[in-house]
Design a protein that fits this description.
It is a single chain. By secondary structure, the protein is α+β, with helices and mostly antiparallel strands. It has a domain of 298 residues. Helix content is 26%, strand content 29%. It is built from 9 helices and 22 strands. The longest helix has 21 residues. The N and C termini lie close together (10 Å).
């Protein structure tokens, strides 16, 4: 929280907003046996049980009762549909837009990115367990729609308060291959590189009685604790994180919002033991609780009251009530991102037909779905969202940006709580720092996006964010 000084008055005002807010959750745990092979190295295609239920939670926000709502949805999936699966994404989201009477810029559907959920892509319907995917995908759309409609019908005047904490669960996962020095970078814990440990926590409290209505936890870390040996549907560490938060906030729903985690994951990763995922979740949950406990009561700032002479001259700061901003604003836009030259669909299909290695075939199949989406242009338009809720700026996009994306946005907007979300909408691939393109690394050879993409994404989102940040409403905090 920045220190402000007005008319010789020192005060610290937490990023806050006043709005009508509603929240609701629906269970989306699939039937046992559904296609859930997220890992190329996995030996099985079907799930064999459930670790913890997976769910979708909708948060509805309106400045006034009569206005078109904004909707944030957190959903326990790795991604919506296939890589580049615009058709699948529209199949899930379009009914929600029609039901609520909103346009696409008014809804952010953020995947928690757990790698232990069904891969809801109709392109995999022919695979073992894939026969369950069409009905499950329909269920997803219905669950989001029902949660959003309930949240809208129960919206009440509430206050957002934001705080920033720290959690060292996330570690850098770009490790130079120790067995092939200088030849490639592999995807796993690199203890020599730092990781962004920022966790941004939002508390939503009912104005009627000050009780917690919902919480939001924005953190950048791949939920890849559970990997190829895991047989169970699971929210990964997000499940235990929510358990910790909700047990300490009167069971108020907690939305996890996946941050810019392109190179970030737990150090202890790729296991089949669900106890490790739960341990990771408690670690993040306690860090988020620390940030929550640091908050003042809703609608209170900390004000300097003068000096008390004692054994030392003591600066006295005390809570004081204030009225938070009621500003709610949103923009949605497409960003033409530069893409690399990709092989043709015919070439990809021929290579897949000739390949006998199951893991390599999986890699090529994923790339084929991307190639089918891109077309022949040198750019591809990807959606993005920038919203402002009083003293908070929320930025979201569909792909997997490195954490420097969120670090740059937060550095440029120091007076705001800045929430940054990857995997919001139809993902195509990673968005990497330009210097990574000289490396033999998965995030570079997987992505269709070319070297300038991260700069274009950052510049465009920051331009929109600064415009919203400049809007005055009498109390920008």
């Amino acid at each position: 929280m920045p220190l402000t000084k007005t008319k010789q008055k020192l005060e610290v005002i937490p990023p806050s907003a006043s709005a009508f807010v509603g929240v609701a959750r629906r269970d989306i745990t699939p039937p046992v046996g559904i296609y859930a092979r997220m890992w190329g190295a996995a030996k099985r295609d079907r799930s064999e049980g459930t670790h913890k239920p997976i769910s979708t939670t909708a948060l509805v926000i309106k400045r006034d009762k009569g206005e078109m709502p904004l909707v944030i949805v957190s959903i326990d999936l790795a991604l919506l549909g296939d890589l580049g699966g615009v058709t699948d994404e529209e199949f899930i989201i379009k009914p929600v837009l029609e039901s609520l009477g909103i346009d696409r810029r008014h809804i952010m559907v953020n995947c928690t990115h757990t790698h232990s959920a069904p891969w809801t892509a109709l392109s995999r319907s022919h695979l073992p367990g894939g026969d369950l995917l069409p009905a499950y995908q329909k269920h997803l759309g219905e669950a989001i729609r029902e949660a959003a409609r309930e949240a809208l019908s129960t919206a009440q005047r509430a206050t957002f308060t934001w705080a920033t904490g720290r959690c060292n669960l996330a570690a850098n996962r770009d490790l130079p291959d120790p067995d092939k020095p200088g030849k490639r970078i592999i995807c796993g814990y690199n203890p020599d590189k730092p990781a962004d440990d920022t966790v941004v926590v939002g508390r939503v409290t009912r104005d009627a009685d000050g009780s917690v209505l919902a919480t939001l936890v924005n953190y950048a870390c791949h939920p890849t604790t559970l990997a190829w040996d895991n047989k169970l549907i699971s929210p990964d560490f997000i499940g235990a994180m929510r358990d910790v938060i909700e047990a300490n906030t009167g069971d108020a729903p907690c939305l996890f919002l996946q941050g810019a985690s392109g190179e970030l994951a737990p150090a202890h990763d790729y296991v089949g033991d669900t106890a490790i995922a739960d341990k990771h979740g408690r670690q993040l949950g306690y860090a988020a609780m620390s940030a929550l406990e640091s908050m003042l009561p809703p609608r209170h700032k900390l004000t300097y009251r003068g000096v008390m002479e004692s054994g030392a001259p003591l600066a006295v700061w005390l809570p004081e009530r204030f009225e938070p901003s009621k500003l709610v604003a949103a923009v949605g836009f497409d960003i033409p991102l530069p893409i690399k030259k990709m092989p043709s669909v015919a070439r990809m299909e021929a290579d897949i037909a000739a390949c006998k290695d199951r893991t390599l075939r999986e890699r090529m199949f994923r790339k084929l779905q991307i190639v089918k989406t891109l077309g022949d242009s040198g750019t591809f338009a990807m959606p993005a969202w920038v919203w402002r809720l009083g003293g908070a700026i929320i930025v979201a996009h569909p792909n997997e940006a490195y954490s420097c994306f969120q670090q740059d946005l937060r550095a440029a907007l120091p007076d705001f709580a800045v929430v940054v979300m990857n995997v919001t909408g139809p993902e195509l691939g990673y968005i990497n720092p330009p210097e990574m393109f000289k490396e033999n690394i998965y995030q570079v050879w997987q992505t269709p996006f070319d070297k300038p993409a991260l700069g274009v994404l950052t510049k465009t989102c920051l331009s929109h964010a600064k415009k919203l940040a400049s809007i005055g409403d009498g109390n920008k905090r």
